[in-house]
Write a structure and sequence with these properties.
Strand content of chain C: under 5%
Strand content of chain A: under 5%
Chains: A mainly alpha (637), B mainly alpha (102), C mainly alpha (172)
Distance between the termini of chain A: 75 Å
Shape of chain A: globular
Distance between the termini of chain C: 60 Å
Order of helices and strands of chain A: HHEEHHHHHEEHHHHHHHHHHHHHHHHH
Largest sheet of chain C: none
Structural class of chain C: mainly alpha
CATH topology of the largest domain in chain C: Four Helix Bundle (Hemerythrin (Met), subunit A)
Largest sheet of chain A: 2 strands, antiparallel
Helix content of chain A: over 70%
Structural class of chain A: mainly alpha
CATH class of the largest domain in chain C: Mainly Alpha
Shape of chain C: globular
Oligomer: heterotrimer
Chain lengths: 637, 102, 172
């Protein structure tokens, strides 16, 4: 399966070609080359997936870890070395398919959406770079390779958020995203170093083998501030994951990241990059489970809180992309919770499977929602709900596909979201009632805010649009990806996921727990019903409800003032008490020393430059005198 | 009875006379002449050491021989440079040849 | 016989030193060159005392015949009208003299301190002349203590000097 290397090479090559030669190409040519390359990549990924899942992957009732390509890059000690390679196992193959598919859809969609933008070639070059980095991340054979691609993903996300670099808010958003995730990655790096310091390896295979025996034995006994070293290391690694996956309180960058072009939001900030944190925890799941179960509990609670928190904020937002952003945070938190409540092995590992399942279905329906939102924005040239309404008359395809996605995320049978969400709820049900009931409530909230969004865009008013700016259905390049993703959103739930992915790589069977299923559908239907009552027609009730909730509503509208809190922390605490003294020290002590040195050199040079007279005989005299002096020194001392 | 040190004393004095000339003279050709004295003193040393300390070998003598040849070569090039300098600045005063310091 | 040799040697040495001093102090360049020529001839006499007859011949032919002639031509070519002598700074004399005295003192100190003067034979041991054929074979041989390689290197050096001299001195 060495051809899996093509999946990485093709996007990287595209990045080089489009990045270096893009300016010489016509924009359309660049877009078509990028899309065709991504199509090739998707075909390769599908072939790899077919071969893995149906031919070579299963040996003796267990999914294998295959490493078709691997070479050593840096060797530190006998056992500690950084490799670059490709690891194929169920979750990485699954991610390959998801990423390449969504990426291909986004590439096609962007042909229409970004048409006529300046920097069209740059856009495609960066998309290729992102695809390369993300694919490299999921196939990483060792944690350090993952870290490298993790940072590459961060960089490409940064440059895509700041794609409209003439817009100050986009620049600020890209900086915010980069700095916040970078801050989290500091924890990730420390975690990696701790882990590799004790285990003497970076390799995922060695780390997770034998129920993470290597980690538990090598880190046994060490404690720091009352917690074991393993707990510290894995909690720090989770910090990196929380930064990328926008877990509370590091989620603040994601809503702002919506400043990027909408297809980018669909690809990076909904379907692929933001699930990297989930993928990281899943990749190290045995290590978490056996070496640091406390961290898994932490993950479960952080995830539950984030899901609830983001869902509440999503209800109040009026910018449609921000609603989707908070919805994404909430759904990713769902996946985190599923990992957090999961046990290991067989049917006990249901949460693990459910998390991955939800990752896949969410990737499809959330990408669809974002692309649909992009289509709407393309039509009305605004992100604000108040500028929309009644669009079902003008945009039938977008309307229907958006509705399908909303049904999927609300968890209505037989759409894909139902199945994955049901598995997550079932896993939580068997683990912790508090988490289960919270998640259940969030399912209702999710249905509510998604349908609120749907009604506000497509129904809600009898708004008539200006004759000259009449909204129109999007072109074919945008409509086709919507339809394809809608088909995925409907049917991807029927994949027998447990047969492919499980915590211990042994397939098992799931069945739908009718209690949980009926509860979840009930919550979804209730949410939709509430939204229908409130938002199908324009009414005054919503304002009255908001009025009666008062402070809570305002707090949610302002995202619970988290941005302001972070701002206060950074400006009043970090800047004033850490950065300003450091800056003073740097300016006066370090620079002062350097300037003093320069001054001293200057002065001494000034005083000896007279020696450089150009008079050969003076040089000769100095030479003779010096020789005599040296001879005297050698002879007499 | 001529002893080794006689040769050495004479060559030493000649060597330092040459250095004195090198330091004090201003005309470039005069400086070159002083340099010849220095080299000549050194060559005397080679020959004298060879004859007195290792009479059965020839290294010193050949060193002198090669030294003479190299001196001749060096003189030829130096004089060519001096003539060129004379052509460009009109005199051969060493104090005027100081453009290299810049 | 020894005493006659010593007298001749002393005369030669004294003449050499005196001529050297005159060569570096004479105010006329042409005179300087002439004194140099005489110093070089005296040096050839030293080589004869050392029984290096070939060396003496080379000294006379190359130095006296070649180099000094070159000097004289250069002097004629660069002669400034009227301005033959150049005034020296007194400070330079003082410093030069100090350095030279220190150097002579140091060298003399090393000379008389060193043990080779007492360990070696006080007089020349091999006072026989070296045969031409031996010199020729040594110069052309490739064995131990034979000098073909430096000889060839030297020939290349001389060639380079010829080319360099032409390049530097030719008119533009």
């Amino acid at each position: 399966m060495e051809y899996s290397l093509f999946i990485l090479i093709v996007p990287f090559f595209l990045f080089l070609v489009l990045g270096l030669l893009g300016m010489k190409m016509k924009p359309k040519a660049a877009g078509i080359i990028g899309t065709a390359g991504m199509g090739l990549c998707a075909i390769c990924a599908s072939a790899v997936a077919y071969q893995y899942f149906f031919q070579t992957g299963m040996v003796g009732e267990e999914w294998q870890h295959l490493v078709p390509v691997n070479f050593e890059w840096l060797r530190f000690t006998e056992s500690l070395h950084i490799d670059l390679g490709i690891l194929l196992d169920p979750i990485s193959v699954m991610m390959l398919v998801v990423i390449t598919t969504v990426s291909l859809m986004v590439h096609i969609y962007s042909l229409g959406y970004m048409h006529g933008e300046t920097g069209f070639q740059r856009y495609y070059a960066l998309l290729s770079l992102f695809s390369f980095s993300m694919l490299g991340l999921v196939v990483a054979t060792n944690i350090f390779q993952m870290y490298i691609f993790w940072e590459l993903v961060g960089v490409s996300s940064y440059s895509l958020i700041g794609f409209y670099y003439t817009k100050p808010s986009a620049v600020a958003a890209s900086k915010k995203a980069f700095i916040v995730t970078r801050f989290a990655d500091l924890g990730f790096l420390i975690g990696i170093l701790l882990l590799s310091f004790y285990t003497k390896t970076f390799d995922f295979g060695l780390l997770t083998a034998d129920n993470a025996g290597l980690v538990t034995t090598s880190m046994a006994g060490g404690t720091f501030m009352g917690l074991s070293i393993a707990t510290w290391a894995l909690a720090l690694i989770f910090m990196g994951g929380a930064g990328k996956s926008a877990m509370f309180p590091l989620h603040i960058w994601l809503p702002d990241a919506m400043e990027g072009p909408t297809p980018v939001s669909a690809l990076i900030h909904a379907a692929t990059m933001v699930v990297a944190g989930v993928f990281l925890v899943a990749r190290l799941f045995p290590v978490y489970f056996f070496a640091a179960p406390d961290v898994l509990t932490l993950i479960a609670y952080v995830g539950t809180f984030t899901a609830l928190f983001a869902a509440i904020i999503a209800i109040t937002q009026t910018d449609i992309k921000r609603v989707l952003a908070f919805s994404t945070i909430s759904q990713i938190a769902y996946m985190m919770v599923a990992l957090g409540v999961s046990d290991y092995g067989g049917h006990d590992g249901l949460g693990y499977m459910a998390s991955m399942f939800h990752l896949v279905t969410h990737a499809f329906f959330k990408a669809l929602l974002f692309l649909g939102a992009g289509s709407v924005i393309h039509a009305v040239h605004s992100n604000e709900m108040s500028q929309m309404g009644n669009l079902r008359r003008y945009m039938p395809v977008t309307n229907i596909t958006f509705a399908i996605a909303c049904l999927a995320i609300a968890g209505i049978w037989p759409f894909s979201g139902f199945f994955s969400k049901d598995e997550i709820l079932a896993a939580a049900f068997h683990s912790n009632p508090l988490i289960f009931w919270t998640l259940w409530a969030i399912a209702g909230l999710t249905a509510f805010y998604m349908w609120r969004l749907y009604y506000c865009i497509f129904w809600n008013s009898n708004k008539e649009y200006n004759e000259h700016h009449k909204p129109h259905e999007s072109p074919l390049t945008m409509a086709v990806p919507l339809i394809i993703l809608a088909i995925f959103s409907i049917f991807s739930g029927f994949i027998p996921f447990a047969g492919f992915i499980s915590s211990d790589n042994v397939p098992f069977h799931t069945h739908i727990d009718l209690t949980v299923a009926s509860l979840s559908i009930g919550a979804g239907v209730a949410g939709i019903a509430a939204a229908t009552v409130l938002y199908l027609k324009k009414s005054d009730w919503t304002a009255e409800i908001a009025q009666s909730l008062g402070g809570l509503y305002r707090a949610a509208l302002h995202k619970f003032y988290l941005d302001e809190i972070w701002m206060w922390v950074t400006q009043s605490v970090v800047f004033r008490y850490i950065c300003i003294p450091i800056a003073w020290f740097d300016r006066h002590i370090i620079d002062g020393a350097m300037n003093g040195l320069a001054w001293a050199t200057h002065r001494s040079a000034g005083s000896v430059k007279g020696l450089q007279s150009g008079q050969v005989q003076f040089y000769a005299w100095v030479f003779v005198a010096g020789s005599i002096l040296i001879a005297v020194l050698v002879l007499f001392f | 009875m001529i002893r080794l040190e006689y040769y050495l004393i004479i060559s030493t004095l000649m060597f330092f006379i040459g250095i004195f000339g090198f330091i004090t003279r201003k005309n470039m050709i005069a400086i070159l002449i002083s340099l010849e004295l220095v080299l000549n003193a050194v060559e005397i040393n080679f020959a004298a050491f060879n004859r007195f300390l290792y009479p059965n070998q020839l290294e010193g003598m050949f060193f002198t021989l090669f030294g003479i040849a190299i001196t001749a070569a060096e003189t030829a090039v130096a004089l060519a440079i001096i003539i060129n300098a004379y052509r460009s600045i009109g005199n051969i005063n060493i104090n005027n040849i100081n453009k290299m310091k810049n | 016989m020894d005493i006659i040799n010593l007298i001749i040697f002393s005369g030669l040495g004294a003449a050499m030193l005196a001529l050297s001093i005159m060569a570096v102090t004479s105010e006329s360049l042409l005179r300087s060159a002439t004194y140099l020529l005489l110093v070089l001839l005296c040096t050839a006499g030293f080589y004869l005392f050392l029984n290096y007859h070939f060396l003496a011949a080379v000294q006379v032919s190359v130095y006296a015949g070649g180099v000094v002639i070159l000097f004289i031509f250069a002097i004629f070519l660069t002669a400034n009208k009227g301005e033959v002598l150049l005034r020296h700074e007194i400070r330079r004399y003082v410093f030069g003299f100090l350095g030279v005295v220190a150097g002579v003192w140091l060298t003399a100190f090393v000379l008389f301190k060193h043990r080779f003067l007492y360990e070696s034979n006080t007089s020349m041991v091999g006072d026989q002349e070296i045969s031409m054929s031996l010199i020729g074979q040594t110069l052309m041989g490739t064995g131990k203590y034979q000098y073909l390689l430096p000889f060839e290197a030297l020939s290349v050096l001389l060639l380079a000097c010829i080319i360099g001299g032409i390049l530097i001195a030719r008119k533009k």
